[in-house]
Design goal:
Blueprint lengths: L1 H10 L1 H12 L14 H13 L5 E7 L7 E9 L9 E6 L19 E3 L2 E3 L7 H16 L8 E6 L10 H7 L8 E4 L9 E6 L1 E10 L3 E2 L9 H13 L18 E7 L8 E2 L2 E10 L5 H19 L2 E10 L9 H14 L4 E5 L5 H5 L4 E4 L13 E3 H16 L1
Helix pairs in contact: 1-10, 2-4, 4-10, 6-7, 8-10
């Protein structure tokens, strides 16, 4: 069967490329990124799916008055399985993409998919259209060969992944009954060039906004003011020092420790000779799952109190974003089935890892649903001249078809 699947996918190479081209030219940017959402792209994909044999399609519209259509659509395509007692297998990709960034860094038009040297160039071709196309053609293999899988297969083409999933998977979890704790979820949205790493855990994510208030004064008279910038700088260093308090290590992750990094800083004053009375900066904290965000925040508050006492400032903090989730077990069924499919299709042994970034897997792991994030990719997400290696796309389609057909 594996050889038949490989031949099938090679025969579909041109169609895969054409689907990539069709999707790339439809901008699907969230309002936060200056766009109008995913509705147009979802409509294009829905039409394509219908023309190619996908009859069981459902559209789930998350309300969003910021976009023209007033909704953020997610599409679910279902292929019923033969064993109703077998867990449902979900494969999830996202419709939205990120902005292009500095256009002068692109060698091609980012909104046109360009084929060159075995690669496809364009915004979104790897993140996440490679996974989207791979899972779609894996399912098409079942449809065109009239194969009924043991497991019911559900493909989710989700909205709003790039800006937090509030209108995508998070909304679906909170407003529908699509998911069950017995479901097995694959997310082809992260991996390595060999396609052997399976992400089963994420560091807890905490983005802090810190507002330090002092007293503005003339640069020549610091004695008459309270320098908020000075206090903020010390605060950022002390918060960075939390790495020495939350100092456990976990070889599942790279780096294998919790990180507390100062990042963005907002403008404070307009002149060099003004001592600022306000200073706002942000911290990006990636925390090993062995620590909860609540216990970390206790240390954050203790650190803030020390700064307020030492400098005479007031410090307010808020959470720009937070996410924490349990790990999926290395021995879970979703990891086992995926590992077996990769070995059967390509003769490769897999290994489990954790990541510092966030995926929609966290939303589902919090619901007690096992998720595995995997793909064969070169990690070009969000970069200028983003590309997808065509053979990677075909390879992942083979893996998923082998898994589906078992």
């Amino acid at each position: 069967m594996t050889n038949n699947i490989k031949k099938y996918m090679e025969s579909k190479k041109t169609e895969m490329i054409e689907l990539q081209k069709k999707l790339t030219c439809v901008k699907a940017l969230s309002p936060e990124n200056g766009g109008d959402g995913e509705s147009e792209k979802a409509a294009v994909l829905q039409e394509w799916l219908k023309k190619n044999g996908f009859e069981n399609l459902e559209i789930f519209n998350a309300p969003d008055n910021r976009v023209t259509s007033k909704v953020r659509p997610s599409i679910v395509a279902t292929i019923p399985g033969s064993d109703s007692s077998a867990p449902v297998i979900w494969v999830m990709a996202h419709l939205d993409v990120v902005p292009t960034g500095e256009l002068s860094l692109w060698e091609t038009d980012p909104w046109q998919c360009v084929e060159k040297d075995g690669k496809l160039f364009g915004r979104g071709v790897e993140d996440d259209q490679q996974g989207l196309v791979s899972m779609t053609f894996a399912a098409m293999y079942l449809l065109e060969n009239k194969i009924t899988p043991k497991h019911t297969i559900k493909l989710l083409f989700a909205a709003d992944e790039e800006c937090g999933s509030a209108y995508g998977v998070q909304w679906l979890v909170e407003n529908t009954k699509l998911f069950n704790k017995t479901d097995l979820v694959l997310i082809p949205d992260g991996g390595d060039p060999e396609g052997v790493t399976i992400e089963i855990a994420e560091k807890n994510l905490m983005w802090l906004r810190l507002h330090v208030t002092g007293k503005q004064t003339h640069g020549s008279r610091p004695d008459t003011g309270i320098n908020a910038c000075l206090a903020a700088n010390d605060l950022s260093l002390r918060l960075h020092g939390l790495e020495k308090i939350f100092n456990k290590k976990d070889p599942l992750f790279e780096p294998d420790y919790s990180t507390f990094q100062p990042t963005m800083k907002q403008k404070n004053v307009d002149g060099i000779n003004i001592i600022p009375g306000d200073d706002v900066f942000y911290m990006d904290c990636r925390i090993l799952p062995c620590y909860s965000i609540s216990e970390v925040l206790k240390e954050v508050e203790k650190t803030i109190s020390g700064i307020e006492k030492d400098y005479g400032v007031k410090v307010e903090y808020s959470l720009a974003q937070k996410s924490e989730s349990p790990a999926t077990s290395k021995d879970s069924e979703v990891v086992t089935l995926l590992s077996q499919a990769i070995e059967k299709a390509h003769g490769q042994k897999t290994k489990c890892i954790g990541i510092g970034g966030g995926t929609v897997g966290a939303e589902l792991r919090r619901e007690g649903i096992d998720c595995a994030v995997w793909s064969t990719l070169n990690d070009m997400a969000h970069q200028p001249n983003e590309y997808c290696v065509i053979e990677n796309m075909i390879k992942d389609a083979v893996t998923l078809a082998v898994l589906f057909a078992e």
